[in-house]
Backbone:
C-alpha cells in the first residue's frame, strides 16, 4: 500500500530557496501558496501554480519561514493546509 503524500518543504538547489511539494488534488487543479515569517500571524501570497510543487527563492539564510497551500478545482477552493516550517541554512 502506498503512503499518502504529505505537504513538505525541502532545501532547493539554489542558496536561499525552498522546494514545496503538496499532494496532488486533481488533474486540472491549481495550487495557491503562502509564506509567513512571523509565525503565521500574516501570510504573503506566492505565485499560483498548475503543479503540486513550487520553488520559492530569495529567502534569507538563517530565517525560519512557514508555508501553506490549498488546491483549487472546478468544485472550488480547498482548505488551507497546516503550515510546515523550514529554516534556511544556506
Residues:
Amino acid at each position: 500500500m502506498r503512503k499518502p503524500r504529505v505537504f513538505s518543504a525541502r532545501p532547493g538547489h539554489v542558496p536561499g530557496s525552498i522546494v514545496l511539494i503538496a499532494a496532488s488534488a486533481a488533474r486540472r487543479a491549481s495550487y495557491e501558496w503562502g509564506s509567513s515569517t512571523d509565525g503565521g500571524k500574516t501570510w504573503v501570497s506566492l505565485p499560483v501554480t498548475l503543479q503540486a510543487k513550487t520553488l520559492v527563492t530569495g529567502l534569507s539564510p538563517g530565517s525560519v519561514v512557514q508555508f501553506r497551500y490549498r488546491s483549487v478545482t472546478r468544485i472550488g477552493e480547498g482548505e488551507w493546509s497546516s503550515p510546515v516550517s523550514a529554516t534556511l541554512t544556506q
